[in-house]
Amino acid sequence: MKFETPAGTNPIDQRRVIGKPTPRIDGPLKVTGTAPYAFERNDVAPGHAYGVIVGSAVAKGRIARIDTADAARAPGVIAIVTHENAGKLGKAKAHTATMLAGPMVEHYDQAVAIVVAETFEQARDAAKRVRVDYARAKGRYDLAAAKAGAPIAPGDKMKTAVGDFARAFAAAPVTVDATYTTPDQSHTMMEPHATIAAWDGDTVTLWTSNQMIAWAVRDMSETLLIPKEKIRVVSPYVGGGFGGKLWVRSDAVMAALAARAAKRPVKVALARAQIMNNTTHRPATIQRIRLGADRTGKITAIAHQTWSGDLPGGGPETAANQTQLLYAGANRLTETRLAVLDLPEANAMRAPGEAPGMMALEVAMDELAEKLGMDPVRLRILNDTQVDPEKPERPFSDRHLVRCLEEGAQRFGWARRSATPGKMRDGRWLVGMGVAAAFRNNMNMKSGARVGVDRKGMVTVATDMTDIGTGSYTIIAQTAAEMMGVPLDKVIVLLGDSRFPESAGSGGQWGGNSSTAGVYAACVDLRRRIAQKLGFDADRATFADGKVSDGGRSVDLAKAAGDDGISGEDTIEFGRLNDDYAQATFGAHFVEAGVDAHTGEIRVRRMSGVYDAGRILNPVSARSQVIGGMSMGIGAALMEDAVVDPRFGYFVNHDLAEYHVPVHLDVPHQEVVFLDTLDDKTSPMKAKGVGELGMCGAAAAVANAVYNACGVRIRDYPLTLDKVLKGLARV
Amino acid sequence: MNDEPAFTLSRRGALVGGAAAAAAGAVPIDAGAAPTGPAQPAPPTVPVRFTVNGKARALDLDPRVTLLDALREHLNLTGSKKGCDHGQCGACTVMVEGKRINSCLTLAVMHDGDAITTIEGLGRPGDLHPMQAAFVKHDGFQCGYCTPGQIMSSIAVLQEIKDGVPSYVTADVAGSATLTGEELRERMSGNICRCAAYSNIIAAIADVAGAKDVA
């Protein structure tokens, strides 16, 4: 099905199942510990052995020698794979660094070997006996040092300019010119990357933890140099991804190599302490923002320049994304520059681009509001735009940022905020309120599904879509139930298997809308087939209450399916609507923060938001997605910081004890409101993504609340005690 | 390639191989074939008997096996999760003799004779423990990986408050702990949820405790 014109009324609009608050259908499995994650598939891999990966102890250089003799003699060892015996491997185009180092080492903790043994304890012990001599090379690990001379990054819209920014900025009566920095961040999903690999002849099956099944097959094919048809990837339960499992990592590649060498299934999980340096991370940014406004607050000049680094051949953090679209202003400039660094591979983490970009832009807006003596909610409303400001002939498909700001301010009690910082006190706490817009692009991705009805009237959906905590199982079941006119408990959803039709996968907050649109398309095909079989008019036939009806006739769906059952399959493909219209999701974050007047400790006391993301398919899981994003925003604002050791080129605090993420006590109860909007340009579902929206701007709202509380403006994330105290001494 | 001979602090070998003496000449690495040279004998195993979810279990274990790995890899009770293996995340939380414990931080052989309860011992789909049902009702999870640990801790936390065990946020450590949102959050803070279902988890616990005003 091609989606090329705005959606008209369709069965989804009935909202019998879609849009209803629905507990997750995979909930009972997850709360009983019976949902099997990759490493737990003992059922499919009897007689498996354990693999432990040895990571490089240098960030850049060459492996001079690997001595595996001691390891090979260790109890229980079955096989050891290094670059010397792995056979010829390719590098997937999607990978910036190889999954197995050798002879060159590209980053710290890049896999240099895998040791396979009968037990985990034996493999772990033997892995420590592998000795590697490196010829170290000088690496580049400091973004600030590499910034000068960093070129414009390759790709679209890495440099955009409209009007005459320099002139308008020079002429503006009120200006902000500030530089913000965001640190390297880690996805830190709770389930470590893990894979069980088993070979059957020349065919390999990987039970793994991955967000994008078709990409996994492609990248394994390009790495192992075997046809895609010889690779099966299974990933029905994923213990979090946040972008860190968009591409197969060393666990999958090394498990496949290890299983081939050991001639047995091998299971491999990255140790927690390996993950941050072995896999990907969100790169640090340096962002310079200049805003010029007239005295009424209208922005006349807006510029956002951003720098990040990656390994040679890598990509940038596109932190200027939102600045191209969020606010009006005739004179504009964005630049995205990319330095070469020899840190581990930089790549997508939840809301790549907007997450760190909004951390800077939305603080700059706060600073502009203060200079104007204007309420920051009012400033944002005043500079709203209904068209792509770089391309005014391109309207937004559906945009209600102003409503989000107004309704959010009203609900939060924004009127009680003092415009002057440091004026609200609660015992030892200085209390402040902060606001930030939420903004994240909406992308749509081709997505397929197969839907069948059996003779009992059970509807089964199969698609290689993944559920990484996003609620895919449930919204897909809701979609099929709505389309086929059956209750939710008559739907079975099978996900995460490369034998199923290729879906959008989970990434870029496109999964929810795109994958359900694919299920919609497959259901339309199935409805047509059923109608034809019954001799009904396919366009007129209705599917409700387990029956198919047309005119005076009505047949049970089960009966229509017959003994052999009946199935349909289709793929939704997206046309130009995302080019002709700017599609995005919007919101407004409100935060009340307390700053301890003596210690500088920051606590988020209240946090809420109003969001506009088209049709909300399941308010239960959508809310959870948003509070998850908001909480990750708290982490980004207050604690998350992957610290680079500039001597050795690695992240020092590479575990959960030292890389701090929000815990229960860091996160207050959160209020989430969704506007009741529909976006008919996005898909037949009229939905958009919410998985990343909640994060975009949340950290800035915290930072703005901290400023309002205590008068300390910190432009270097995260906002830690030392930075607060240094500022408090000056205030 | 710019080698750095001036860098005196070498991480070569030492960090990866430990301080073991260098081996003799390189042994040909032949993946898949038996290792060359005399293999070292496997370390002795240790018998351990404990009760898991009311069922007596007897295992012969490598003494290095953690309680978590005994459950997951030897008893196929994979409900308890390995998020970090270092006591940093709480995903492996189980009850031992009625108290919650990070099962990755303790060796199985230390629990001879103990009674252990895992998530599998609470309820099953169709017959959920009230806390499991509350997690479903309040959407107290997303990816589900930390969830068994959160649920085990939730049950333990309510008992700890009932027993008057003070926490870091208890105003009067000599007095009795009260069931507040802050108490729940503090006591649950050893269980990380990166999906951050925190707000919903607290709602689920409060629901089970019958506490209406907890926010």
From TrEMBL, chain A:
InterPro entries referenced in this protein's UniProt entry, alphabetically: Ald_Oxase/Xan_DH_a/b, Ald_Oxase/Xan_DH_a/b_sf, Ald_Oxase/xanthine_DH-like, AldOxase/xan_DH_MoCoBD1, AldOxase/xan_DH_MoCoBD2, AldOxase/xan_DH_Mopterin-bd_sf, PaoC-like
GO terms, molecular function: iron ion binding; oxidoreductase activity
Superkingdom of source: Bacteria
Domain Aldehyde oxidase/xanthine dehydrogenase a/b hammerhead: 32-138
PANTHER family found in the cross-reference section: ALDEHYDE OXIDOREDUCTASE MOLYBDENUM-BINDING SUBUNIT PAOC, XANTHINE DEHYDROGENASE
Protein name per the record: Xanthine dehydrogenase
Organism: Sphingomonas adhaesiva
Automatic annotation (TrEMBL), chain B:
Residue ranges of every copy of the 2Fe-2S ferredoxin-type domain listed in the record: 46-122
GO molecular function, one term: 2 iron, 2 sulfur cluster binding
Keyword Iron: yes
Superkingdom as given in the UniProt entry: Bacteria
Pfam families, A to Z: Fer2 (PF00111), Fer2_2 (PF01799)
Signal peptide: none
SUPFAM superfamilies associated with the record: 2Fe-2S ferredoxin-like (SSF54292), CO dehydrogenase ISP C-domain like (SSF47741)
Cited PROSITE patterns: 2FE2S_FER_1, 2FE2S_FER_2, TAT
Keywords per UniProt: 2Fe-2S, Iron, Iron-sulfur, Metal-binding, Oxidoreductase
One cellular-component annotation, GO: periplasmic space
InterPro entries: 2Fe-2S-bd, 2Fe-2S-bd_dom_sf, 2Fe-2S_ferredoxin-like_sf, 2Fe-2S_ferredoxin-type, 2Fe2S_fd_BS, Aldehyde_Oxdr_Iron-Sulfur, Beta-grasp_dom_sf, TAT_signal
Matching PANTHER family: ALDEHYDE OXIDOREDUCTASE IRON-SULFUR-BINDING SUBUNIT PAOA, OXIDOREDUCTASE, IRON-SULPHUR BINDING SUBUNIT-RELATED-RELATED
Name the record gives this protein: Aldehyde dehydrogenase iron-sulfur subunit
Source species taxonomy: Bacteria, Pseudomonadati, Pseudomonadota, Alphaproteobacteria, Sphingomonadales
